[in-house]
Amino acid sequence: MHTTPPNDIEIRGLSGALGAEILGMDLSRPLSGAETELLLNSFYRYGVLCIRDQKLTYDSQIALARIFGTPDVHPIANGMEEYPELIRVMKPAGEQAFFGTSWHTDNSFFERPSSVTVLYGSEIPPVGGDTVYASMERAWELLSEPLKAFLEPLEAVHSAREAFDPRTTGDAKYNGETAITYTYSDAIYEETVHPVVRTHPITGRKSLYVNEMFTQQIVGLSKPESDGLLAMLYQVSTRPELTCRVRWEAGTVTIWDNRWLQHYAIDDYPDHDRLMYRVTITGERPA
Ligand code: SIN
């Protein structure tokens, strides 16, 4: 995957499965119609766009995110005071990272889960802190027909209970040790039911829609049956050949489609700060 569109913008595939790096685009000012079209077409084709060498303000990041829809205001992870839709994801040197450090799809526990995430790298460790993405569309395609037929009508319960409950996270998040602040409320325990297989509203393609961080149980199966089936789906959907990996630099903006991807922020930089700014977009109910 390597294409060179006209106007000095270069697009390079990140892996055989998904993802592309874009060079030569300036996201700090309003994009032209042609640039917006290029951005959206590339986004629907590659799923993860990693756009280098940007200088975004809070306002320009939010304006960029609005190309994809309306930003969420997260009910648990607090946004910035003046910019509630912008979460400052800071991991200070000497602390463990908590935010996004296992396979997940952003906010799948919302009734209308986030469709798109726009993450801006501000301070990046000299080595480590990469983010890995996996194609749940490719994972679905590779399943056998009998398993697809079994999974297709199923639904699963999603909740933030495991990821955000201070009783399972040792209170660290709520003590501000990660430098992200959280609102502790019943939203943590709310449950939402989504289909196990969803169809993308724009591309019409199907993908698996379960993830280790937020999916609790498949409806109608016993807990051991559900746990076993989910464990197998997580294993097959995160095989290296279904992934791409983003190496961040200060000034990298990565935009990804949560409707057909999972991702994993690698916590391998204990001695360094990492500062990111994140906006997510309110999606549609998965169908
Ligand atoms: C996230 O899960 O949205 C954060 C990903 C990252 O920090 O790389």
Task: Annotate the secondary structure layout.
Layout: E1 2-3, E2 10-13, E3 20-23, H1 33-46, E4 48-51, H2 58-66, E5 87-91, E6 114-123, E7 131-135, H3 136-142, H4 145-151, E8 155-158, H5 161-164, H6 166-169, E9 192-195, E10 197-199, E11 206-208, E12 215-218, H7 223-237, E13 243-246, E14 253-257, E15 261-265, E16 274-282
Parallel strand pairs: 3-4
Antiparallel strand pairs: 1-2, 2-3, 4-14, 5-16, 6-14, 6-16, 7-13, 7-15, 8-9, 8-12, 10-11
Would you give an account of this structure?
This protein is an alpha+beta fold. It has one domain (10-282): Double-stranded beta-helix, CATH 3.60.130. The protein contains 7 helices and 16 strands. It is globular, with a radius of gyration of 18 Å. Bound molecules: succinic acid. Residues 89, 99-100, 106, 117, 119, 131, 263, 265, 276, 278 line the site of succinic acid. Succinic acid binds at residues 89, 99-100, 106, 117, 119, 131, 263, 265, 276, 278.
